[in-house]
Amino acid sequence: MPTGVAMRDVREQLFQAAERVLLRAGPSALTSRAVTTEAGCAKGVLHRHFADFDAFLAELVRDRVARLDQQSAALRDAAGTGTVAGHLADALTTLFESVAVGLVSLVISRDELRARLRETTPTGLPLLTEATAMIASYLAAERDRGRIAADADIDALAPTVIGAGHLLFADREAAPPDAAAVRKMVTTVIADVVREP
Fold first, then answer.
1. At 125, is the secondary structure helix, strand, or coil?
2. What is the pTM of this model?
């Protein structure tokens, strides 16, 4: 690799390279060499910015978790408009059509990575835990508007929506589910609690 060429926003370039490798070849192909090759830089660049490869991966996951904040705020703001099923289906598609499915697989497969992520996500599975909180927050906002039953168990419903959504998108070999399939799943999961006209 050429040396002496300045890279702008090295961290983000390395994160994007890791995502491309993850999407193309899966978690088992994600190595420091694969990331730096994809980013077009020397392997030492990654190690100058991160203590080791698991530290890099932990920061990648944390960065992607932080991006959920914006999606969560937009989803909450949409409460009371459109349909609950439509908003949930769109949120799941946005979440799982990204690199999230690959990141979840990565977290599951790497013990050291999970251990490091426990510092910020002490329970549950990082990324899915925060996505579940996003869905729960939205459902609570809809419940406040009377569009979800007052007695709905949001603490059970939110992880059910996330789990079912993850299963729809988890097959790396098949094409992602179409919008109709996602909406059908969501509609089925929330059927007993929706109070829309």
1. coil
2. 0.88
